[in-house]
Protein 1
Amino acid sequence: MTPLDYDFLRKCLKDRSGLVLSADKEYLVESRLLPVARKAGLANLGELVSALKAAPQDALMTAVVEAMTTNESLFFRDKTPFEHFRLTIMPALLAARRASRVIRIWCAAASTGQEPYSLAMSLKEMASEIVGWRIEIVATDISNDVLEKARAGLYTQFEVQRGLPIQLLIRHFTQSGELWQIAPDIRAMVKYRQLNLLNDFSQLGTFDLVFCRNVLIYFDSETKTDVLNRLARVTAADGFLVLGAAETVVGLTERFKMTADKRGLYVPNTSAPRLATAGKPMPRLVAVGGR
């Protein structure tokens, strides 16, 4: 792979997924994209680049983006956000939404499903408190491949051992050969959709809670600011945003503010100047369903 080939791939990935690669990541690109090239019948990354230049919108480009996207995930990752969910977020939303009895949650980088399913299992644990409520979990990711795995809800022994308490494994999973499958009622609580955060997501409607964890770290500052400002437009005024442990809104946007003593938890800053939005205000969607 020549330096020009690498620069071309870096630009493609930045433009299409927001992923920013430094100049010293050639080894990573080679390790992830050589299998893509060979699967396409191409001998090397030089031929892959030539094919992408000839047909930049075809399935090969999608395969390149998906191969380079980090899909690391585990159940109840970092624990703290799920403690916030149980002890701070849900009590506040249950009090604020007593009239409508509807809560909408968006996992904006769902990967293979561990995060939205962790939220779904947490909701199951508070079943007596949410009787008669409609709680929708929308889970999106840029990669169709990982979303298919998420919909199936099948995980290896290694995957279920990473962060999943044994009592929840016993309660919500059944063994299928060497794999574990999450229960149909948990899977039905999550609706999966393919979505690129660089694109418009206003059609999803507004949400009471947005989990957007461990994805902004791969973007440059300009892209982070753009995504955060657009997240503000789809977060209810009294809603919540949860970011990853290494992520922040500080220095990027005034549309969210930190919650005191709650690492990674943010709320809309209602005193910040409103951003211009195109068209009419988005309706609040309340449809419930999942796959």
Protein 2
Amino acid sequence: MVETNGLPNLSDGSTPDKRSLDYGIWATEVLDKLKIEKTFVAGASFGGLICMKLAIVSPKKIIAAFLLNPGCLQSFSMTFENLYYNLLPILRPNSKNVLKFLDKAVFSKPNHQLSEIAEQMLVDYEVFAISRYKDRTQKPYYMDSQLDEIKVDTYLIEGDKDLLFPFQKSIDNAKKHMKTLKETKIFSSVGHGIETYDKAMNYVGEIIKSYI
């Protein structure tokens, strides 16, 4: 299995070259092994990049793709605010700093938040991962003109409080490059972790129903 950013495990952290199509080849192999000939795919953050690589390599396998605050439509934001909240738990990996990062960059309370139990589990996991795991994975990048090669129906789902990849720039770049961009949906008061927001997931479900 390809490494996931921040995932503690016993492997060396190797990943395919993110600028190649190797992630798309890997995703194709996963679908083939599962005997899935055609499906819907969805990817949040770095997962959005993998979806687009798959769309280039094996477009016939995809009915439609959903990008949730993807990390392929622009470079990682270098604003002071974003860098501060992202670096804080890395430099001082404790529960307080991880929670501050989650509150400011990943979620947007009170509209977009986890239950208290789920939040505590996530904080514990993040502290463990940051303090124990040597992250050698590659990070998302702006695919730019490579996005011109996308020929599958694509839906862009954005949260307007995403500090990591500000929504308007992603929308502008998607419209610039993606000829098969079917629709863009923006959710108010939602952070980067939009895949945990029930209304965003309900939206994905409604679109899927329209194809069936």
